[in-house]
Amino acid sequence: MADERLIVALDFHEMDKVQALVENLGDCVSYYKVGMELFYSVGVEVITYLKQQNKEVFLDLKLHDIPNTAARGLCSLARLGVSILNVHASGSYTMMKTAIDQLRQETARTGIPCPKLIAVTVLTSIDQTDWTAIGQKTNIQEQVVRLAKLTKQAGLDGVVASPQEAQAIRQACGEEFMIVTPGVRPSGVATNDQSRIAVPMQALKNGASHLVIGRPITAAKDPHAAALAIIKEMEMVR
Ligand SMILES: O=c1ccn([C@@H]2O[C@H](COP(=O)(O)O)[C@@H](O)[C@H]2O)c(=O)[nH]1
C-alpha cells in the first residue's frame, strides 16, 4: 500500500513513459511530482492524467520572479487543481508573502481548493564548492534555516530542503511545517547530481514530512521493487 510521505519525481518528457511507470507502480505510489522537463514537454495533459488516476500532484516549477509576476503565475497554476506548488525562498519575504496572500484570495474567490505553497531553500545539488563560488559566506545549513524561518514568517506551508538540514528546520519551524526533501538515496544507489543526501530512514528520522525520490525508482531495473523497498524502509519510521 502507498505511503503518502513518498512523492515520486516523474522526470521524463514523454507521456507514454509516465503512463508505463504509473501503471507499473500502481497502488504503491499515490503522490507524484511533475517538474520542468515533463510540464514543459507535455503540459496540462499530464496533470489531467494523474488526477484521473486519483494521484496527488506536486507541480514543481520553482517560481522565482518579482512579487506580482510570481503571485499571478501561481494563481494560474492553482486552476490545475494540484496539491503543492512552489517558489524559490531566495525570491524574498515580500515575494513569498504576496504569493501566498494572492493565492489564498484567488482560490477563496473562485472556490478552487488552495494548494499548499512551499519554498525551495538551497538546492540539494549544491555543495560547499558551488556555494562558495556564488559568493556565499555563511554555511549552507545556516542559510537553509534562515530561509525556512523567512518562509514560515511569510505564511507558506513549508520548504524544500535536503534531508541533512531537516532536523534543524524542524527545531526552528515546528511540527506542522512541511519539510519536503529531495536528495534521498537508498544505500548503494547512485547519487547522480545530488550532493546533500541521506537514506530514506534517516531523512524521516531527521524530521522530513515528505521524501521526493526520482531516479532511484524511475531508473531502476524494476521500479516497482525499488519503490517497495523504499516504502519498507520508510515504514520503520512513523
Ligand atoms: O533542491 C532540490 C529541489 C528539487 N529537486 C527535484 O527533486 C527531484 C529529485 O530527483 P532524483 O532523481 O531523486 O535526484 C528532481 O526532480 C529535482 O528537480 C531536487 O532534487 N533538489
From TrEMBL:
Molecular function terms from GO: orotidine-5'-phosphate decarboxylase activity
Q: What does this protein do?
A: Catalyzes the decarboxylation of orotidine 5'-monophosphate (OMP) to uridine 5'-monophosphate (UMP).
- All copies of domain Orotidine 5'-phosphate decarboxylase, residue ranges: 5-230
EC code: 4.1.1.23
The cellular component terms of Gene Ontology attached to this UniProt record, alphabetical and capped at eight, are: cytosol
Assembly and oligomerization: Homodimer.
Source organism, top-level taxon: Bacteria
The entry assigns this protein to a family as follows: Belongs to the OMP decarboxylase family. Type 1 subfamily.
What's its catalytic activity? orotidine 5'-phosphate + H(+) = UMP + CO2
Q: Does the keyword Lyase apply?
A: yes
Q: What is the originating organism of this protein?
A: Propionispira arboris
Residues the entry annotates as binding substrate: 11, 33, 60-69, 124, 185, 194, 214-215
Task: Write out the GO biological process terms.
Answer: 'de novo' pyrimidine nucleobase biosynthetic process; 'de novo' UMP biosynthetic process
Pathway terms, separated by semicolons: Pyrimidine metabolism; UMP biosynthesis via de novo pathway; UMP from orotate: step 2/2
Report the InterPro entries cross-referenced here. Answer: Aldolase_TIM, OMPdecase, OMPdecase_AS, OMPdecase_bac, OMPdeCOase_dom, RibuloseP-bd_barrel
Record: active site: D60 (for ompdecase activity), K62 (for ompdecase activity), K62 (proton donor), D65 (for ompdecase activity)
Q: Does the keyword Oxidoreductase apply?
A: no
Q: Which class of enzymes does this protein belong to?
A: lyase
Q: Which UniProt keywords apply?
A: Decarboxylase, Lyase, Pyrimidine biosynthesis
- The protein depicted here goes by the name Orotidine 5'-phosphate decarboxylase
